[in-house]
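Backbones bend. Shown next:

***
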Amino acid sequence: MRTTTHRRSALRTATISILAGSALLAPAAAALAAAPAPERPAAVRTAAVAAAKPVKIDVGAGVLITVKGGKPYYDGKVVKPGQTVNDGIYLHLSADGKRLYSKTQGGGTPYAIWDVRTGKSLGTQKNSPTAKAKAALTAKPSATSVKAWQELRVSGKATGIKSGSTVTLQQKQRGTWKSLPASTTVNKSSAYSLRVKLGLKGTNDLRVKSGATVSPVFHVTVR
Protein backbone atom coordinates (compact mmCIF):
# COMPACT_ATOMS: atom_id res chain seq x y z
CA MET A 1 0.00 0.00 0.00
CA ARG A 2 2.82 2.43 0.74
CA THR A 3 4.26 1.76 -2.64
CA THR A 4 0.93 2.47 -4.37
CA THR A 5 0.43 5.73 -2.43
CA HIS A 6 3.90 6.88 -3.37
CA ARG A 7 3.29 6.18 -7.06
CA ARG A 8 -0.05 8.01 -7.03
CA SER A 9 1.54 11.02 -5.32
CA ALA A 10 4.32 11.12 -7.88
CA LEU A 11 1.77 10.96 -10.72
CA ARG A 12 -0.30 13.79 -9.23
CA THR A 13 2.87 15.89 -8.82
CA ALA A 14 3.93 15.32 -12.44
CA THR A 15 0.41 16.20 -13.69
CA ILE A 16 0.33 19.43 -11.66
CA SER A 17 3.80 20.40 -13.00
CA ILE A 18 2.69 19.91 -16.62
CA LEU A 19 -0.49 21.96 -16.07
CA ALA A 20 1.48 24.71 -14.39
CA GLY A 21 3.97 24.80 -17.27
CA SER A 22 1.11 25.06 -19.77
CA ALA A 23 -0.44 27.90 -17.79
CA LEU A 24 2.84 29.81 -17.88
CA LEU A 25 3.29 29.29 -21.63
CA ALA A 26 -0.28 30.22 -22.56
CA PRO A 27 -0.01 34.00 -21.88
CA ALA A 28 3.28 34.18 -23.81
CA ALA A 29 1.77 32.36 -26.80
CA ALA A 30 -1.32 34.57 -26.69
CA ALA A 31 0.81 37.72 -26.57
CA LEU A 32 2.90 36.50 -29.49
CA ALA A 33 -0.20 35.74 -31.57
CA ALA A 34 -1.72 39.14 -30.73
CA ALA A 35 1.45 41.09 -31.68
CA PRO A 36 0.97 42.87 -35.05
CA ALA A 37 3.19 41.89 -37.99
CA PRO A 38 6.09 44.31 -38.59
CA GLU A 39 4.95 47.05 -40.93
CA ARG A 40 6.99 47.96 -44.00
CA PRO A 41 8.37 51.52 -44.09
CA ALA A 42 6.26 54.06 -45.95
CA ALA A 43 9.00 54.57 -48.56
CA VAL A 44 9.01 50.84 -49.39
CA ARG A 45 5.22 50.77 -49.71
CA THR A 46 5.26 53.85 -51.94
CA ALA A 47 7.97 52.37 -54.19
CA ALA A 48 6.04 49.11 -54.51
CA VAL A 49 2.86 50.96 -55.48
CA ALA A 50 4.76 53.13 -57.97
CA ALA A 51 6.38 50.06 -59.53
CA ALA A 52 3.02 48.36 -59.94
CA LYS A 53 1.36 51.39 -61.51
CA PRO A 54 1.74 51.52 -65.32
CA VAL A 55 3.58 54.52 -66.81
CA LYS A 56 2.10 56.34 -69.79
CA ILE A 57 4.31 58.03 -72.42
CA ASP A 58 2.64 60.30 -74.98
CA VAL A 59 5.02 60.12 -77.96
CA GLY A 60 2.76 62.25 -80.16
CA ALA A 61 0.63 61.57 -83.23
CA GLY A 62 -2.02 60.16 -80.91
CA VAL A 63 0.24 57.29 -79.81
CA LEU A 64 0.37 56.45 -76.10
CA ILE A 65 3.03 54.00 -74.94
CA THR A 66 2.22 52.03 -71.80
CA VAL A 67 5.11 50.85 -69.62
CA LYS A 68 4.33 47.88 -67.38
CA GLY A 69 6.92 46.13 -65.27
CA GLY A 70 9.59 48.35 -66.78
CA LYS A 71 8.71 47.22 -70.32
CA PRO A 72 7.15 49.55 -72.94
CA TYR A 73 4.24 48.23 -75.01
CA TYR A 74 3.26 49.41 -78.48
CA ASP A 75 0.12 48.15 -80.20
CA GLY A 76 -0.25 45.53 -77.47
CA LYS A 77 3.26 44.11 -77.98
CA VAL A 78 6.33 44.63 -75.81
CA VAL A 79 9.21 46.59 -77.34
CA LYS A 80 12.40 44.68 -76.56
CA PRO A 81 15.77 46.30 -75.71
CA GLY A 82 17.56 47.28 -78.93
CA GLN A 83 14.39 46.85 -81.01
CA THR A 84 13.26 49.43 -83.57
CA VAL A 85 9.62 49.87 -84.63
CA ASN A 86 8.84 51.83 -87.80
CA ASP A 87 5.08 51.77 -88.24
CA GLY A 88 3.99 55.27 -89.19
CA ILE A 89 5.77 56.40 -86.04
CA TYR A 90 9.39 55.55 -85.20
CA LEU A 91 10.23 53.92 -81.88
CA HIS A 92 13.54 52.57 -80.60
CA LEU A 93 14.36 51.15 -77.17
CA SER A 94 17.98 51.47 -76.07
CA ALA A 95 19.97 48.28 -75.54
CA ASP A 96 19.85 48.76 -71.76
CA GLY A 97 16.07 49.25 -71.87
CA LYS A 98 16.25 52.60 -70.08
CA ARG A 99 15.57 55.11 -72.89
CA LEU A 100 12.82 55.13 -75.49
CA TYR A 101 13.32 57.16 -78.68
CA SER A 102 10.38 58.30 -80.78
CA LYS A 103 9.93 60.29 -83.97
CA THR A 104 6.79 61.41 -85.74
CA GLN A 105 6.54 61.76 -89.51
CA GLY A 106 8.48 64.60 -91.09
CA GLY A 107 12.13 64.74 -92.08
CA GLY A 108 12.97 67.73 -89.89
CA THR A 109 11.42 66.32 -86.73
CA PRO A 110 14.06 65.47 -84.09
CA TYR A 111 14.14 62.23 -82.14
CA ALA A 112 12.46 62.57 -78.74
CA ILE A 113 14.05 60.76 -75.79
CA TRP A 114 12.03 59.36 -72.89
CA ASP A 115 12.96 57.87 -69.53
CA VAL A 116 11.21 54.51 -69.55
CA ARG A 117 11.13 54.24 -65.75
CA THR A 118 9.44 57.60 -65.12
CA GLY A 119 7.94 58.43 -68.54
CA LYS A 120 9.57 61.88 -68.41
CA SER A 121 11.11 63.61 -71.42
CA LEU A 122 14.93 63.66 -71.62
CA GLY A 123 15.01 66.13 -74.52
CA THR A 124 15.66 65.55 -78.21
CA GLN A 125 18.51 64.78 -80.59
CA LYS A 126 19.00 65.22 -84.33
CA ASN A 127 20.80 61.96 -85.11
CA SER A 128 19.14 58.56 -85.23
CA PRO A 129 19.86 56.51 -82.08
CA THR A 130 20.82 53.56 -84.30
CA ALA A 131 23.20 55.52 -86.53
CA LYS A 132 26.76 54.23 -86.27
CA ALA A 133 29.25 56.73 -84.94
CA LYS A 134 31.97 57.69 -87.38
CA ALA A 135 35.28 56.11 -86.38
CA ALA A 136 37.69 58.60 -84.82
CA LEU A 137 40.76 58.68 -82.59
CA THR A 138 42.16 61.34 -80.31
CA ALA A 139 45.76 61.39 -79.06
CA LYS A 140 47.45 63.47 -76.37
CA PRO A 141 51.03 63.04 -75.10
CA SER A 142 51.82 63.32 -71.39
CA ALA A 143 54.71 65.66 -72.30
CA THR A 144 55.59 67.71 -75.38
CA SER A 145 59.32 67.87 -74.64
CA VAL A 146 61.43 64.96 -73.36
CA LYS A 147 65.01 63.70 -73.28
CA ALA A 148 66.08 60.98 -75.69
CA TRP A 149 64.57 57.61 -74.68
CA GLN A 150 62.67 59.17 -71.81
CA GLU A 151 59.35 57.41 -71.36
CA LEU A 152 56.09 59.26 -71.90
CA ARG A 153 52.48 58.22 -72.43
CA VAL A 154 50.09 58.83 -75.27
CA SER A 155 46.42 58.55 -74.33
CA GLY A 156 43.15 59.14 -76.08
CA LYS A 157 39.60 58.09 -76.88
CA ALA A 158 38.33 55.82 -79.63
CA THR A 159 34.91 56.56 -81.13
CA GLY A 160 33.17 54.00 -83.33
CA ILE A 161 36.01 51.52 -82.75
CA LYS A 162 35.38 48.23 -80.96
CA SER A 163 37.03 47.50 -77.64
CA GLY A 164 40.00 45.20 -78.08
CA SER A 165 41.05 46.88 -81.33
CA THR A 166 44.78 47.57 -81.65
CA VAL A 167 46.08 51.14 -81.56
CA THR A 168 49.61 51.75 -82.86
CA LEU A 169 51.83 54.82 -82.66
CA GLN A 170 53.23 56.12 -85.94
CA GLN A 171 56.12 58.49 -86.59
CA LYS A 172 56.71 60.50 -89.74
CA GLN A 173 60.12 59.63 -91.17
CA ARG A 174 61.32 61.36 -94.38
CA GLY A 175 57.76 62.09 -95.41
CA THR A 176 56.44 58.58 -94.73
CA TRP A 177 54.46 57.35 -91.73
CA LYS A 178 56.18 54.44 -90.01
CA SER A 179 54.63 52.28 -87.28
CA LEU A 180 56.71 52.17 -84.09
CA PRO A 181 56.94 49.21 -81.67
CA ALA A 182 54.44 50.92 -79.37
CA SER A 183 50.87 49.64 -79.39
CA THR A 184 47.97 48.79 -77.09
CA THR A 185 44.28 47.93 -77.29
CA VAL A 186 41.11 49.95 -76.82
CA ASN A 187 39.49 49.15 -73.47
CA LYS A 188 35.79 48.76 -72.65
CA SER A 189 35.55 52.48 -71.87
CA SER A 190 36.64 53.27 -75.47
CA ALA A 191 39.96 54.64 -74.22
CA TYR A 192 43.59 53.66 -74.60
CA SER A 193 46.99 54.57 -73.15
CA LEU A 194 50.39 53.43 -74.42
CA ARG A 195 53.99 53.92 -73.32
CA VAL A 196 56.41 55.58 -75.72
CA LYS A 197 60.18 56.11 -75.88
CA LEU A 198 61.59 58.33 -78.65
CA GLY A 199 65.22 58.59 -79.69
CA LEU A 200 65.02 60.80 -82.80
CA LYS A 201 66.15 64.24 -81.66
CA GLY A 202 64.24 67.30 -82.78
CA THR A 203 60.51 67.70 -83.37
CA ASN A 204 58.75 64.39 -83.93
CA ASP A 205 55.51 64.31 -85.92
CA LEU A 206 53.34 61.57 -84.42
CA ARG A 207 49.86 60.06 -84.69
CA VAL A 208 48.05 56.90 -83.62
CA LYS A 209 46.37 54.49 -86.00
CA SER A 210 43.74 51.74 -85.67
CA GLY A 211 42.78 50.03 -88.90
CA ALA A 212 42.01 52.77 -91.40
CA THR A 213 41.38 55.37 -88.67
CA VAL A 214 44.12 57.80 -87.68
CA SER A 215 44.28 60.57 -85.10
CA PRO A 216 45.22 64.18 -85.73
CA VAL A 217 49.00 64.74 -85.83
CA PHE A 218 50.68 65.83 -82.58
CA HIS A 219 54.27 66.84 -81.85
CA VAL A 220 56.86 65.85 -79.26
CA THR A 221 60.31 67.45 -79.13
CA VAL A 222 63.24 65.23 -78.17
CA ARG A 223 66.18 67.11 -76.62
Confidence is low (pLDDT under 50) at residues 1-26, 28-33.
